[in-house]
Design brief:
globular; 8-stranded parallel beta barrel; 20% strand
C-alpha cells in the first residue's frame, strides 16, 4: 500500500510474510497464492506491499538462478503484489516448533550472515517495482549478547563495512539504492535505539542504519519521541519501521494477571520480559522465567516481547502497547518530512497466541492480517497521509 505524504514523497506500507513460514522458493510462491493475494483482495486493493522473508535456501536459489528470480517478479506482478523491503533477521528455521535463541544465529561475526544479506540485497534490487529506486532490509542487531567479545565485535564491524561497500557497488550497477537496518531487540548486543548509536556511528555509512520495531521499543520502555530524536540528532538513518505491539501487564503482582500472562508463555519464540525500576531496566530472557518465583520485580508494569495483533489487544487484565506504536508513528511520518518511507506490519505470532485466539482457518488469518493493515492505514490517514491507488 502506498501513501502520499504532505511533503509529496511516497510512504510504503507492507505486511511481513514471516507469519507464513517457508524455507524454499516453492513455499514462497505458495504464500503469494494462498495468503498474500487473498489479503490484497480482502482489502479491495489493486496493489499490496509485502515485506518478504526469504530463508537462506530460498534466497540462494534466487541468486543462483536468474530465471527463478524473473519468475518470482512475474508472479508478484501477476498477483498485484510489490516488494520494497525484506525481513533479513531470521536466517532459517523460523517455522520450527522451537525457534527461541536459534533466530540469532548466525550473527554478524559469522561469514554466513554477510553472505546471506548480500544475497538478499541482490534479490531485492531485482524485485523493486520499476518506479521505485530505494529498498530496505532489516537485520539482526549484531548478535545475542552472550559470547560476544571484542574479537567478534570487530568481525561484525568489518562485515557491515564490507556490506556497505557491496551496496555501493550494487547501486552503481543497477541504479537501485538499498539500505540495511539493524533491528534493536531485547537481549541482544543492541537492545535499544540508544545501544545502536555507537556501532552505527562507528561504521559511519548511510547505507547502514536502524530498523525501529515498535514492539521492541515498547518492551524496553523507550520513549518514542526521545528515542527517535536521538537517532535524528546522531544522523542515524531510520531505514524502516516495523509496526508492532508488545504485551503489557500493569499489575504483574496480582495472581490473575500472572495467570493471564502464563497463557502467552509458549514454546516456539522467546518472549523477553522487562520492567522499569528506580535502578533501571530489569529483565528476563523469556516470559516463563519472569513468571517463575521472584526472577523479576513486580512492583511496576511488565512488558513482554510478544507481537500482539494490532487490532486485537488481549482481554483484561492485560493490554498491548498500541499507544507506543501510535506515538512512534506520529514522530516517524507525522512531521513535515517522514523519518522513514518504509513501514511494515510484523505480527508473526498468530499461531503462538493462546489457542482460543488463534485463527483456525486460512480465511481467518487473511481477515486478521487485513484488519491489522486497515488499522495501520487509518493511523496513517489520520496523520494526513493520502492513500494512493
Amino acid at each position: 500500500m502506498r501513501f502520499r505524504h504532505p511533503d509529496g514523497s511516497t510512504v510504503h506500507l507492507a505486511y511481513c510474510t514471516n507469519v507464513h513460514p517457508a524455507e524454499t522458493l516453492d513455499g514462497v510462491l505458495a504464500q503469494l497464492r494462498d495468503h498474500c493475494e487473498p489479503v490484497r483482495r480482502r482489502l479491495g486493493r489493486d496493489r499490496l506491499g509485502i515485506g518478504l522473508w526469504l530463508a537462506r535456501d530460498a534466497a540462494h536459489a534466487l541468486v543462483t538462478d536468474p530465471s527463478a528470480l524473473r519468475g518470482l517478479r512475474t508472479e508478484l506482478e501477476h498477483r498485484g503484489l510489490e516488494v520494497v523491503t525484506l525481513n533479513g533477521f531470521p536466517y532459517e528455521g523460523f517455522g520450527a516448533e522451537e525457534v527461541k535463541y536459534r533466530v540469532y544465529r548466525p550473527d554478524w561475526a559469522d561469514p554466513e550472515r554477510l553472505a546471506h544479506t548480500t544475497d538478499l540485497a541482490r534479490v531485492l534490487a531485482q524485485l523493486l517495482p520499476d518506479d521505485v529506486t530505494e529498498g530496505s532490509i532489516s537485520t539482526l542487531p549484531l548478535a545475542w549478547r552472550t559470547a560476544y567479545d571484542q574479537e567478534r565485535a570487530t568481525a561484525a564491524h568489518t562485515a557491515l563495512t564490507t556490506l556497505a561497500e557491496r551496496l555501493d557497488a550494487l547501486h552503481e550497477l543497477t541504479g537501485r539504492s538499498l539500505r540495511i537496518g539493524l533491528e534493536p531487540e531485547p537481549g541482544c548486543t543492541v537492545e535499544t535505539t540508544r545501544d545502536a548509536l555507537a556501532p552505527l556511528t562507528a561504521i559511519g555509512h548511510d547505507r547502514i542504519g536502524i530498523c525501529v520495531d515498535t514492539c521492541h521499543l515498547a518492551t524496553s520502555f523507550e520513549d518514542p519521541h526521545t528515542a527517535l530524536d536521538a537517532l535524528a540528532q546522531a544522523r542515524v538513518p531510520i531505514v524502516k519501521s516495523q509496526l508492532s505491539a508488545a504485551l503489557h501487564a500493569e499489575h504483574p503482582h496480582l495472581p490473575e494477571v500472572r495467570a493471564a500472562l502464563a497463557a502467552f508463555d509458549e514454546p516456539r519464540f522467546l518472549h523477553q520480559t522487562r520492567t522499569l525500576t528506580a535502578a533501571g531496566l530489569r529483565g528476563t530472557d523469556d516470559l516463563g522465567e519472569a513468571l517463575a518465583g521472584d526472577a523479576l520485580p513486580d512492583a511496576s508494569p511488565w512488558r513482554a516481547h510478544f507481537h500482539v495483533p494490532l487490532h486485537a489487544a488481549p482481554a483484561a487484565p492485560l493490554t498491548s502497547t498500541l499507544p507506543v506504536l501510535r506515538a512512534a508513528l506520529t514522530r516517524l511520518v507525522g512531521g513535515p518530512h517522514p523519518l522513514t518511507h518504509h513501514l511494515e506490519v510484523e505480527t508473526y505470532t498468530w499461531q503462538a497466541l493462546p489457542p482460543e485466539l488463534r485463527p483456525r482457518a486460512r480465511a481467518q488469518l487473511v481477515d486478521s492480517i487485513a484488519a491489522e493493515l486497515t488499522l495501520a492505514r487509518d493511523l496513517l490517514t489520520d496523520l494526513g497521509l493520502k492513500e494512493l491507488p
